[in-house]
Design a protein that fits this description.
This protein has two helices and 21 strands. The chain has 300 residues and is mostly beta strands. The strands form five sheets. Strands 6-5-8-1-11 form a five-stranded antiparallel beta sheet, with no helix packed on it. A five-stranded antiparallel beta sheet has the order 16-15-18-12-21, with no helix packed on it. Strands 13, 14, 17, 19 and 20 form a five-stranded antiparallel beta sheet that branches. A hairpin with a 4-residue loop joins strand 5 and strand 6.
Length: 300
């Protein structure tokens, strides 16, 4: 795991952080995950176990550094976390402004210098987790999306990256809500739940980048599958207490007794209301897939 000491160069932002902290205290409710505006940080799931791989794409829709006459690429940091919450790798990649794009996949993660020189490749294949992509200047200039591909079935699904930092800020204890098609019609599906700590200079795992203790309960979830029959509603529930910062599962694994002929709503809530969540879900029929970033709503 790479050293996190590189972040100490941003201590000059401490005073600004104190001011922001005072403002956040006075306005405790966050805006929720940002899915529409450019932001300073992006969060995306990384699915690279078994037959899966993930591709990440970001764009810098803000300006380049330097002057208009002499533009310079902008430094963007990529932090890759294991599902446990441990920080696996950090790489710095420069990207142009005014729509400059960058594409990364877990099989060959490489640093990229201002002149385009690439560092040695690092493979995270065989790992599930998530990535935090950050503009260290706290400028809301990044947009992004991801695609998860199953190389065995040729199915793929994707969704928008979650923006945090300027326009996006999570609320503790909010419930993540999404939808699913009929389970028995699906040839591929995957639910991803990520616990995020967004209280510091940048979003990170619930373990602050460290490996958790084996028996430590970090992410405690109540997951509910509600069918869509108006006149005969029913629900199945699953409880998971994890020594991890992220959770990956299919609906069949979570709800083996659910009526497979029903489509419905998936609702995920942290049983510890101090926890902040993000959730993503992908489903496919044959090679045709669709993904979604769950909406967040306050718990009742």
């Amino acid at each position: 795991m790479l050293s996190r000491s590189v972040r100490t160069r941003f201590c000059g932002l401490f005073l600004a952080f104190l001011v922001f902290g005072a403002f956040a205290t006075a306005n405790a409710a966050g805006n929720g995950p940002n899915l529409t505006e450019p932001d300073a940080y992006l969060v995306m799931p990384m699915v690279a176990e078994g037959n899966y791989t993930t591709f990440f794409m970001i764009s810098n829709v803000g300006a380049s550094d330097g002057s208009p006459e002499d533009p310079e690429p902008v430094e963007i940091q990529w932090d890759f976390y294991d599902a446990s919450g441990e920080l696996l790798e950090s790489v710095s990649r420069y990207v142009l402004g005014e729509g400059g794009t960058d594409i990364v996949d877990p099989s060959s993660i490489r640093s990229k210098d201002e002149d385009g020189t690439l560092g040695p490749p690092i493979s995270l294949l065989g790992r599930n987790g998530f990535v935090v992509v950050g503009d260290w200047e706290d400028e809301p200039r990044l947009i992004g999306n991801f695609t998860v591909a199953n190389t065995q079935t040729s199915a793929a699904w994707g969704a928008a990256a979650v923006g945090l930092g300027v326009h996006g800020r999570l609320n503790s204890g909010d419930e993540a809500v999404g939808t699913t098609f009929k389970i028995d019609d699906l040839e591929d599906n995957l639910l991803v739940v990520i616990g995020i700590n967004d209280e510091g200079f940048l979003p990170e795992s619930l373990t602050d980048g460290f490996a958790p203790e084996e028996d430590e309960e970090i992410l405690k979830l109540e997951i509910r599958l509600q069918n869509n029959q108006i006149f005969n509603p029913s629900a199945d529930q699953a409880i998971r207490n994890l020594a991890a910062s992220a959770f990956f599962s299919t609906l069949e694994e979570l709800f083996p007794r659910a009526n497979p002929g029903l489509s419905g709503t998936i609702a995920i809530r942290p049983t510890d209301r101090s926890t902040k969540l993000l959730a993503f879900y992908g489903q496919a029929v044959g090679p045709y897939g669709a993904g979604q970033t769950f909406r967040m709503v306050p718990q009742k």
